[in-house]
């Protein structure tokens, strides 16, 4: 792309906000009453994060993996691709992410980190499962446009970032790429549209990125504190 | 052979299709025809305001929004419009235009302007686009944003030679790649160029518009309202006194009058989702137009706000 510095995010917005919101609404209306099952699954995932049991975390990972595949099939290919050709490119990445999550869920977990990562993961799941669906009606849009996790990509990506906080670093790093990418891309799209959901997506991505950085800084400080003082010169 | 503008044919087609029923009676009354400007390569005349489809016609499968698009197209033809411009880049816009044309029983005045936008198989994309529109051939095909322009221009000139296309063009937007466009205009026998031009984006006045006149190239102006940003910025501001003698009742009309009154400009293609706006846009080219000194005053007034 030549003269790339002259492009703004709005140059890549292919549809009007009204068209997008109506698409969400029609998709949601067609899904009813599966949203109830998705909300129940969200509550279960929240409980998984709070309890922090390795076997349950693996089950949660597989469930969210299935959500990535469902969101790709039903929403990206089934709906969004009709107004955004970019959805045709995103959908295979969603399917790959879902398959990888299900695959990695088969590997046993020895332990789940407790305290701060667990609390942050649970917070992200709380936002994705219960707060995110309320944003559409709070903005005056119909309840049918409420975005629930496992069926809509945005809360699914946020919930995934939350659950990944409970995984070991290696698995987390591999599985973070797609949700971070989606949060950044979709966050910019929604920001261009002036939608408040943009802040939630971009905020989730920033916290997920800063979490490992904060951990490594904490470890470095602890190591410096624990290091024995240098012996005085003889 | 150039298509002639026949308002009675349009009205008959719209009434037969039932789309005109959606239009208020007063709006269907005779409105003055928009200014027609000349395509230099053939001397064919074309109304100076067309219809863009970027964002506004990308409504997917939404039946209600598709109906709104048909109403906009119906009002456009009813008011004397001809050129509809779209692109493979615009999501579902091509399919929506095609469905609209079908609903309106293929209005005869249509001047179909499309683009090729791919780094691979241009002819395949053009054929897919033609099927979406449901037209036997396009009036104008343009290389979108100069992407792979050398290969695509070969294709388009070959189509023109074979009688499968009437006009060949290239497009840019928002002032990008003007240097390259200038070189192509100087080297290739283009019928049309498409670029961004309005009272605040005037870079094209320096070299491209004079070159278009010199080379006999028709000019289509995209993003006349900066995708709504410019009209949004001017909303609520009182119109300057110079608008009244020009018959301009809105900032959008004043902007369009500024654009289409440039001697090198052939057609501006504002996009809209609203029937009243499409009528307003075409009416802008139907009344008096500013002379050079008034154009300068319009630009100065807008720059102040």
Mean pLDDT of chain B: 91
Number of strands of chain A: 0
Mean pLDDT of chain A, to the nearest integer, reads: 90
Radius of gyration of chain A: 20 Å
Number of DSSP E strands of chain B: 10
Can you identify the CATH superfamily of chain B? NADP-dependent oxidoreductase domain
Q: How would the blueprint of this fold be written?
A:
The complex is a heterodimer of chains A (234) and B (305).
Chain A: H1 17-31, H2 34-51, H3 54-77, H4 86-105, H5 116-138, H6 153-164, H7 169-193, H8 197-226
Helix pairs in contact in A: 2-3, 2-5, 3-4, 3-6, 4-7, 5-6, 5-8, 6-7, 6-8, 7-8
Chain B: H1 7-17, H2 25-28, E1 36-39, E2 44-47, E3 51-52, H3 63-78, E4 83-85, H4 93-103, E5 111-116, H5 122-133, E6 138-143, H6 149-161, E7 165-171, H7 178-187, E8 192-196, H8 208-215, E9 218-222, H9 229-234, H10 243-246, H11 251-260, E10 267-268, H12 275-284, H13 292-304
Helix pairs in contact in B: 3-4, 3-12, 4-5, 7-8, 11-12
Observed structural traits:
heterodimer, A: 234 residues, mainly alpha, 8 helices, 0% strand, B: 305 residues, alpha/beta, TIM Barrel, 8-stranded parallel beta sheet, two-stranded antiparallel sheet, 13 helices, 42% helix, globular, disordered N terminus
